[in-house]
Write a structure and sequence with these properties.
169 residues; 4-stranded antiparallel beta sheet
Amino acid sequence: MSKSNTSSELLRDARNVELLQLLVDDPRMGTADLARRVGMSAPAVRERVLRLEEAGVIRGWRLDLDPVALGYPVCAIVRVRPAPGQLPKVTELARALLQVVECHRVTGEDCFVLKVHLPSIDGLDVVLDRFLAHGHTTTSIVQSTPVPSRGLPLASDAPDAGAARKRRR
């Protein structure tokens, strides 16, 4: 059975979805507390969470750090259009530069969209110059973030979840 089949089966179980929602709301919630909240034993909850991890539904547990508090108040979105033959070098460079916190390969005129955090605007030149050796860049400075990074909606949260369930029947 494929990983996606396993994960979709796991997500049909309302208890698993409830566990995921509790973990989205508070990833540090302990197994005993999770078990109390869903009315199950701690070993059963631990087994369900393990199955969700093994199926790839839960990819990992992360710490969300504030870039400003760490001394990186400048955030920029950089689009990169590599010169011919430079695509692998842009990928390597994005992986190597610690200022690059996200790199997406995209369709359209540009091949990459990067999210970069910097201690000052002066540091932007250093980063951009590295990419300019491999192509053209277009940069936007982030002014504010009205929708910060957030978890994906669970099946029960999605606006069209009811319609999708009806279509499957």
